[in-house]
Specification:
The complex is a heterodimer. Chain A is of the alpha/beta class. Chain A has one domain (about 130-475). Chain A has 13 helices and 23 strands. Chain A has helices spanning about 1-10, 35-45, 50-65, 105-110, 115-125, 140-145, 155-160, 160-170, 180-185, 430-435, 440-450, 455, 460-475, and strands at about 25-30, 85-90, 125-130, 135-140, 150-155, 190-195, 205-210, 220-225, 230-240, 250, 255-260, 265-270, 285-295, 300-305, 310-315, 315-320, 325-335, 340-350, 355-365, 370-380, 385-395, 400-410, 415-425. In chain A, helix 3 packs antiparallel against helix 9 (about 180-185), helix 7 (about 155-160) packs across helix 8 (about 160-170) and helix 11 packs across helix 13. Chain A is globular. The relative contact order of chain A is 0.10. In chain B, about 40% of the residues lie in helices and about 30% in strands. Chain B has a single domain, classed as Rossmann fold, CATH 3.40.50. The two termini of chain B are about 35 Å apart. Chain B has helices at about 40-50, 70-75, 95-110, 115-130, 135-140, 150-160, 180-190, 205-210, 230-240, 240-250, and strands at about 1-10, 15-25, 30-35, 55-60, 65, 80-85, 90-95, 140, 165-170, 195-200, 215-220, 225-230. In chain B, helix 3 (about 95-110) runs parallel beside helix 6. At the A-B interface, helix 10 and helix 11 of A face helix 2, strand 7 and helix 3 of B. Chain A: This is Fe-S cluster assembly protein SufB. Chain A: It holds the Pfam family SufBD_N.
Chain lengths: ~475, ~250
């Protein structure tokens, strides 16, 4: 554990230190987006015809769509023709072991504090590491394979398990679901695929580290998790990105498909580069995450700790189709300086006796704007549906904003919906109480904020919770006094 | 240990302390009494370093250092402890976690290694007995939903854990029933040594039945207008503050 802590320490210490750039000769598409680029990407990845067709369909749908403007965020117009949609680090051959992996890449991971050897040896976490859109190494595969669990890069899944991919891709987030999902569907570069067979309980946390590397390449990750009947998996996703002057577009899609009696726990700690104090640079994070509890008694639980990005647009949602299925959303969103976050969830109750729980904790500091946007929808046949929502906002200073946009849409009279919301400020009294006991102001703020977020942090696996706590403290550094 | 000379302090431009003089030596217990609004809590807050108060004149020397020059957390690490009149709630942070953080800050300041979980818990168990505080209370969110008595007991428990040199108890008796008062006072007494000192700020004499002061000072309109032994407290209990007010008002006019 102490070694783990050391890793976490290095990973999260002080300033945003992941601001370096490594020189890996990029194999990239020309700027801009058209059908040829989509074909280029698909060809690069040696994809089957059906997938190319799928991408093209998405591209065509995208061209007819408009960028959504309803979120409570503001940013300069994105020129989608000024973005490079594909870039891959060059590799001579597919690596069979870490020894064959480009040492420069390994160096990258070391700087991040997630060297694969250490990950393997110490944390018991299988890592599908994604660097600039192409997976370079996957660990623990053999062990997982024994149980019939598939955990690999998306491209590999397309090659090795086309029938599974074809069956589930787009089944939760259809290609024309929204502007960014359509864009992702057209140009997604890589991502992760996870399949848990019937009745299998995945014995370890599955974890993926994402990272944006080459300048000006949007990152379009695609994740698909399929949990067969009676299976269980806990999936972790964590991000850091190097410092940039230009805004970087990140439009990922995550789909979760849970069958009868299956349970999926999806945890995220998001720490994309948030831009400097004046809001310059930073990642635009427009993510579509959705899970479907397709079978009876299934459960999907989202936990997110969002500290990074200059703009966050993200609503991990659950479609509760199976009877007695459960959806959960636990969120901490911290914004500082000029950051803007519009995040929340959608809980769609379709099946009978479906339950959902929403716990959202927003923390705003500096000049940031932090919005919770959530929808609870109870359909006609969702007899006995229940929802509990709690949305708390914590303000630090008087130049930031916290907003709550709850939408409740009920079509069945038996539904029980509870919504609680609070807004509070970190009191000078609280800080003085801490300083009087010998705790300095910054630590005091971290302590108070961590206390405020505890209900959400408790949902994270332990190592992740420790990391998240440090990130919270880090994000809020210098926000008082 | 503590030497206050001609201390003036104000809040939002209004002068509350108008020239306090006080000497506190190790091993002593001083009681600061006085009517409402006389500046008792202000004095406690200024000593602890609360930022809303502005010190306009005077000096405070603590263990050979200029106390007013130190940030609140530095004062705390140097051994100044304030038991709050109104302890603050911190949701989601247990007393245990809070104290562990605080204690390790103090230890770091002293150049000591942080306490590991086992030694910390052992120390906690021992100190819990002093104020008859329950383990379950300590794992709950700090002061959240605590009764008045539990809050004050928790303050004294923290004092026991942090082992300060100078403790300032700000109206620790307010809101306590007689049993709680006795428990809290017993805790304070047990923590008394020849090396530490206590300043007890109180409106009523009854706390002083349990925590016996060496000196009693009466604060009125921002000044100490009368000092004496513990008998002065009894006199105040009997006659009230009016005679002191009159005495003070005639001498100033």
């Amino acid at each position: 554990m102490s070694k783990d802590n050391q890793i976490l320490e290095e990973f999260t210490s002080k300033e945003y230190e992941h601001g370096w750039n490594i020189d890996i000769e990029a194999d990239q598409a020309p700027k801009g987006l058209n059908e040829d680029i989509v074909r280029f990407i698909s060809a690069k990845k040696e994809e089957p015809e059906w997938l190319l067709e799928w991408r093209l369909k998405a591209y065509r749908a995208w061209t007819k769509m408009k960028e959504p403007k309803w979120a409570n965020v503001g940013f300069p117009e994105i020129n989608y023709q000024d973005i490079i949609y594909y870039s891959a680090p060059k590799q001579k051959a597919k690596p069979k072991s870490l020894n064959e992996v480009d040492p420069e890449l390994l160096e990258t991971f070391k700087k991040l504090g997630i060297s694969l050897e250490e990950q393997k040896r110490l944390t018991g976490v299988a890592v599908d590491a994604v660097l600039d859109s192409v997976s370079v190494a996957t660990t623990f595969k053999d062990k997982l394979a024994e149980l019939g669990i598939i955990f690999c890069s998306f491209s590999e899944a397309v090659r090795e398990h086309p029938e599974l991919v074809k069956k589930h891709l787009g089944s939760v987030v259809p290609i024309s679901d929204n502007y960014f999902a359509a864009l992702n569907s057209a140009v997604f570069s890589d991502g992760s695929f996870c399949y848990i067979p019937k009745g299998v309980r995945c014995p370890m946390e599955l974890s993926t580290y994402f990272r944006i590397n080459a300048a000006n390449t949007g990152q379009f990750e695609r994740t698909l998790i399929v949990a067969e009947e009676g299976s269980y998996v806990s999936y972790l996703e964590g991000c850091t990105a190097p410092q940039r002057d230009e805004n970087q577009l990140h439009a990922a899609v995550v789909e979760i498909y849970a069958k009868k009696d299956a349970e999926v726990k999806y945890s995220t700690v998001q720490n994309w580069y948030p831009g400097d104090k004046d809001g310059k640079g930073g990642i635009y994070n427009f993510v579509t995450k959705r899970g479907i509890c397709a079978g009876d008694n299934s459960k999907i639980s989202w936990t997110q700790v969002e500290t990074g990005s200059s703009i966050t647009w993200k609503y991990p949602s659950c479609i509760l189709k199976g009877d007695n299925s459960i959806g959960e959303f636990y969120s901490v969103a911290v914004t500082n300086n000029m950051q803007q976050a519009d995040t929340g969830t959608k809980m769609i109750h379709i099946g009978k006796n479906t339950k959902s729980r929403i716990v959202s904790k927003g923390v705003s500091a500096g000049h940031s704007q932090n919005s919770y946007r959530g929808q609870v929808k109870v359909m006609k046949r969702a007899e006995g549906a229940r929802n509990f929502s709690q949305c708390d906002s914590l303000l630090m200073g008087d130049k930031c904003g916290a907003h709550t946009f709850p939408y409740i849409d009920i079509e069945n009279k038996s539904a029980q919906i509870e919504h609680e919301a609070t807004t509070s400020k970190i009191g000078e009294d609280q800080i003085f109480y801490c300083t009087q006991r010998g705790i300095d102001e910054e630590k005091a703020v971290a302590l108070i904020v961590n206390g405020y977020c505890k209900e959400v942090l408790n949902q994270l696996p332990m190592e992740f919770a420790v990391e998240a706590q440090k990130l919270l403290a880090l994000t809020l550094e210098g926000s008082v006094g | 240990m503590l030497s206050i000379k001609n201390l003036h302090a104000s809040i939002e431009g209004k002068e509350i302390l108008k020239g306090i003089n006080l000497e506190v030596k190790p091993g002593e217990v001083h009681a600061i009494m006085g009517p409402n609004g006389s500046g008792k809590s202000t004095l406690a807050s200024v000593l602890a370093g609360r930022e809303e108060y502005e010190v306009t004149a005077g000096e405070v020397t603590y263990m050979g250092q200029d106390l007013l020059d130190l940030a609140p957390e530095e004062r705390a690490r140097e051994g100044v402890f304030l038991a709050f009149q109104y302890p603050v709630e911190i949701p989601g942070v247990s007393t245990t976690n809070f104290l562990k953080t605080a204690l390790n800050e103090v230890r770091e300041h002293k150049g000591l290694e942080p306490l590991d979980a086992v030694s910390f818990l052992t120390m906690m168990k021992e100190k819990m007995k002093l104020v008859e505080i329950d383990q379950t209370l300590l794992s709950r969110s700090l002061n959240e939903g605590f009764s008045g008595g539990e809050k004050k007991r928790n303050e004294v428990f923290q004092m026991a854990m942090l082992e300060p040199k100078l403790s300032i108890l700000d109206e620790t008796d307010s809101g306590l029933d007689i049993d709680a008062l006795r428990i809290v006072a017993n805790g304070v007494n047990k923590l008394k040594t020849n090396d530490n000192a206590t300043i007890v700020v109180t409106h009523y004499q009854r706390l002083l039945d349990y925590i016996v002061p060496d000196y009693v000072h009466v604060l009125y309109k921002g000044k100490i207008v009368k000092s004496g032994s513990k008998e002065l407290a009894l006199e105040l209990e009997e006659k009230g503050y009016d005679w002191i007010k009159e005495e003070a008002d005639t001498t100033t006019t």
